Known about the structure:
The complex is a heterodimer.
Chain A: H1 4-30, H2 38-67, H3 70-74, H4 76-98, H5 103-112, H6 114-131, H7 135-141, H8 145-149, H9 151-166, H10 172-186, H11 190-204
Chain B: H1 19-31, H2 61-68, E1 71-75, H3 88-93, H4 106-110, E2 120-125, E3 131-134, H5 135-139, E4 145-152, E5 157-167, H6 168-175, E6 183-188, E7 210-214, H7 215-219, E8 224-229, E9 232-233, E10 243-245, E11 258-264, H8 271-275, E12 299-302, E13 312-314, H9 322-325
Parallel strand pairs in B: 1-4, 2-11, 5-12
Antiparallel strand pairs in B: 2-3, 4-5, 5-8, 6-7, 6-11, 8-9, 8-10, 12-13
GO molecular function (chain B): oxidoreductase activity
Organism (chain B): Halomonas alkaliantarctica
Keywords (chain B): Metal-binding, Molybdenum, Oxidoreductase, Signal
Amino acid sequence: MASPRIWLAWRVGVFLAALAPLLFWSWQVANNAAGPEPGRYLLLNIGIGGLWLLLLTLSLTPLTKLTRWKGFALIRRQLGLWTLAYATLHMLSYALFILGLNWALLGSEIVKRPYIIVGMIALIGLAVLGATSNKWSMRRLGKRWKPLHKFSYVILGLVLLHFFWVVRADMQEWAMYAAIAALIMATRLPPVARTLPKLRYRYSR
Amino acid sequence: MLIKIAKPSDLHESDVTPESIYLSRRRFMGGMAGLGAGLALSGHVQANADYSDVPDGDAPAWLKEKISETQWRAVTPSNPDNDKIAPFDDASGYNNFFEFGTDKGDPARHAGSLQTEPWSVVVDGEVNNGGRFALEDFAKPSQFEERIYRLRCVEAWSMVIPWLGIPLADIIKRADPTSKAKYVRFETLVDPEQMRGQRSSFSIIDWPYVEGLRLDEAMHPLTILAMGMYGRELPNQNGAPLRLVVPWKYGFKSIKSIVRISLTEEQPVNSWQQIAADEYGFYANVNPEVDHPRWSQATERRLPNSLFSPNTIDTLMFNGYADEVAELYAGMDLKENY
Lengths: 205, 338
């Protein structure tokens, strides 16, 4: 079972699953199935997709504790990098499709609009984590690596705040994501974190 | 000693436009080069052949008859090359109508559940001639006109849409406002059974959706009550069977599926103002110089657009209708009264 080939297939499968939505949305745009404002369609979908990826990435640690399945730990870095990729594409969609690559406008918007400032900080944070997710950085950072990457919790908060400020009339969707985020963060509370592995034994018996 | 100087923007009873002046303004408007051709008799017989690819609706007989007698192209953009009419699919498939959901596609998906027939509208408040009116009786005495207007959403996108309807002033005159009437307040239907968005327990909107206009804005000849678009009746997602269209204001002022029109002495609080007064004011005049707190209003994306040509154009003061409406706001600080 521990065949490296299966793990490779699992990682490739996850890669394709993360890529698939981007291909699907591009296909919709190419076939005029994305509405009269395809740029905004991409912007919003990629943004939500990025949030999904961030939540998935952060759920891998508690899932590993709960199941001890090696597969979850194996794709953590990949999903983290996918989160960064989606966040980058989200920002690029904004600059390209909404602002029409008007850099001066981008500059003034970044300074003026709190939700964009928060979004940019989250993106920069993800970029730092992405850049330090390789083995060399892990060695260099040593004990500091883990605390640094716990900033992903802060980034999750920033992303939800960014999203919150965009909502105009109905909180339902936001509340759903916030609840999932709260659940995932709750698994990090020491008493809960200690209980998770025990739950596993209870289930396996 | 206190000397009270009336601001030019203060309303007086005399501000209610007398019918004779109102009628002459309509003639004037129709003749204006800026708004193109077609008053009264000239364009009367032109068929709605332009909309042959628009799917037929299911209008009641009385509405079909009204539509067939429409005065086509009564108001058109001065530069039709710049202001091309949006495809029907886009105008009917990309909507904000939070009674049916917050996604742009939700209204088209879910508004089919709305029963638009029979429909009645209550006219009440400071009027001598109020009551509940069947939509049919509402429409019958007035001439249907086609008005091709720019629609500018507060979200910084815009479309050009051919509406069919009657001047709101017709309705208000028939209601015979009292001397106390200063504002007009509108209400959308509340019926969670038919409107799934109203069932959401996370909604910030306190139903019913409410909008309002100053009486002179409501009486302005550009302000219409629409009952159709693209040569047919309104699709439900576009506000069937009766909606307001105020082309120099952001789209959210143009309230949909109206069930109540009240003349009031006090300025009504509109729904968006109630939710976020710092973002959406009572006036909501299209104004490139006053940003929404979260985005600039200096430009707009004219839809449909494509990925690499966002079709960004400069937003015009009062959405390009400044010549017609600027006088309504003479002396007002539009940054203050946004």
